[in-house]
Specification:
Oligomer: single chain
CATH class of the largest domain: Mainly Alpha
CATH superfamily of the largest domain: Intergrase catalytic core
Order of helices and strands: HHHHHHHEEEHHHHHH
Shape: globular
Structural class: mainly alpha
Radius of gyration: 23 Å
Number of domains: 2
Number of helices: 13
Number of strands: 3
Distance between the termini: 67 Å
Largest sheet: 3 strands, antiparallel
Strand content: under 5%
Length: 297
């Protein structure tokens, strides 16, 4: 089996049998394409010709190119999955990468904004400005629901129930979850949907909620630029992204006493350990819980 044929078969399996998100499959495809180019340069064109020494040499080449340990670990994860697939198909006798690993740096806690800074950021889009209603609604929704940027741009009108006050989100792996909308986000969404969105459509139909100037779905890059621009204008720093609002959503829920399992459900995490990383509890909250519940506090 040729390399290209084997990689295509593996990516098809990820999409059809495991139901991974399109962005995840695209990332695997990029990492495996780089691995295939490395192999072909060494005259390995058949999937059965992959060995441990080649995988180790590829990881060393990635390090020489300046890729971070985190990026190399992600590339190795894609290769691991691919080689396990080949082993199960009988193309390889054993997984050549089974004993290989990349030392990853400790996970850094994502930054969360305080109540004051996040309010300043959300207040930046002026409703009278071009796209102001859309931008205000988008920012409010990111913070109110903790959506991933990919979930926000893919949101369709049928997934929004303003009357009941919730959105139905299609998350990673096609997993569906229901997230309540707060009062502020609900009002901002209603203002955008009834006011500015019809003008963006210009009579053309679109199932997507958030639209660009020509009535096309808003891109992830556009949302990143919007959040960064509003963060700078609000004076809350340069390193603010849509994911900062997602982490702030979770942190504020925990600080308010929300159960970790509830936050896990709202974020759409399959594993609670992921939620524990994203939702570190602030020292203020820890002191409060200790004072209220410890008999000698």
């Amino acid at each position: 089996m040729g390399l290209d044929e084997a990689i295509d078969a593996y990516l098809d399996q990820l999409a059809t049998e495991r139901g991974l998100a399109r962005h995840t499959i695209d990332a695997y495809a990029r990492d495996l394409a780089a691995f295939a180019r490395f192999l072909v340069a060494r005259r390995v064109r058949k999937a059965g010709g992959v060995g441990t020494a080649l995988v180790r040499a590829h990881l060393a080449a990635l390090a020489d190119r300046g890729l971070s340990p985190r990026s190399r670990a992600r590339a190795l994860a894609a290769i691991h999955g691919f080689l396990r697939f080949l082993t199960m198909r009988g193309v390889l006798r054993a997984d050549p990468a089974a004993e290989l690993g990349v030392r990853r740096p400790p996970s850094r806690l994502p930054r969360a904004l305080g109540a004051g800074p996040v309010a300043a950021l959300l207040a930046q889009p002026a409703e009278q400005a071009p796209r102001g209603l859309r931008d205000r609604a988008l920012l409010e929704l990111l913070y109110a629901c903790g959506l991933r940027v990919s979930e926000a741009v893919a949101l369709r009108g049928a997934q929004v129930n303003l009357e009941a006050g919730f959105v139905t989100v299609m998350g990673k792996g096609g997993k569906e979850r229901v997230v309540p909308i707060g009062r502020a986000a609900r009002a901002a969404l209603e203002a955008y949907l009834t006011g500015e969105r019809p003008r963006l459509l210009r009579g053309r139909p679109s199932p997507f909620v958030f639209l660009g100037t020509r009535g096309r779905p808003l891109t992830r890059q556009a949302v990143w630029k919007l959040v960064r621009r509003c963060a700078l204008a609000a004076g809350v720093g340069e390193r603010v992204s849509p994911h900062t609002l997602r982490h702030t959503f979770a942190t504020h829920l925990l600080d308010g006493g929300a159960d970790l399992r509830i936050v896990q459900t709202l974020l759409g995490h399959a594993d609670i350990s992921t939620t524990q990383i994203y939702t570190h509890v602030s020292p203020t909250r820890l002191r409060e819980v200790h004072r209220r519940h410890h008999p000698r506090s």
